[in-house]
Amino acid sequence: MIRRILTVLGVIFFINACASIPLGTMLSLSSFDEQDFAELNPRVIRSQILIDEPGKLKIDATELTLELDTSQGISRYSFPLKLESTQVIPQNEGLFSSSPAQNHYQLALTDTAINSFQQVQTLINTETPTQYSFSIDAGLDEMSKPVKEITLSVMIKLTEEQGYLTLIDNATLNLKQQP
């Protein structure tokens, strides 16, 4: 069987940002193929997003997207995410460095998204994609005070055994303020 490469695009926010994917994540997913995708349990898929205060995630605009490149062209599928838990991680003041307070979100596929994901898994068996692309699309809620930049991290868990993979690690986003 020909192995397909899973291209992890990372996170696309509704603000301009640029970040890199950790090498460890790319290596761990380099042998991911359509059989691996078909064996995923969508009830296990999770995402964790950490955003520096005062940033807050816009939950209703958060989804996992999958792009498949097949002989029929590129198909894009969106799977809404729901909030499982949230917590505020307090500011950490150290002797040589400090880190601001962060909002930590754990998200899972909605019931509708689980059903849709299973349908796409069935489709994969007939379409044989040449490339896969996962991303987590999200937005930020309006902030009460102007902020020029914010730092975030995004992780995804595809299987129980594998645990979380870091897609974006402490990426700093420049926020443009509207007049």
Summary keywords:
10 strands; two-stranded antiparallel ribbon; 179 residues
Q: What can be said about this structure in brief?
A:
This protein is of the alpha+beta class and 179 residues long. The chain has 3 helices and 10 strands; from the N terminus they run E-H-H-E-E-E-E-E-E-H-E-E-E.
Helix content: 10-25%
Strand order of the largest sheet: 1-8-3-4-7-2-9-10
Order of helices and strands: EHHEEEEEEHEEE
Average per-residue pLDDT, rounded, comes to: 79
Structural class: alpha+beta
CA gyration radius, whole angstroms: 17 Å
Tally of structural domains = 1
How many β strands by DSSP?
Answer: 10
- Individual helix count: 3
Characterization of the model:
It is built from three helices and ten strands; from the N terminus they run βααββββββαβββ. It is an alpha+beta fold and 179 residues long. The chain has one domain. It has an eight-stranded mixed beta sheet.
Set down the secondary structure blueprint.
Layout: E1 5-13, H1 23-29, H2 34-39, E2 46-52, E3 57-70, E4 73-89, E5 92-93, E6 98-99, E7 102-109, H3 111-127, E8 131-140, E9 149-157, E10 164-174
Parallel strand pairs: 1-8
Antiparallel strand pairs: 2-7, 2-9, 3-4, 3-8, 4-7, 5-6, 9-10
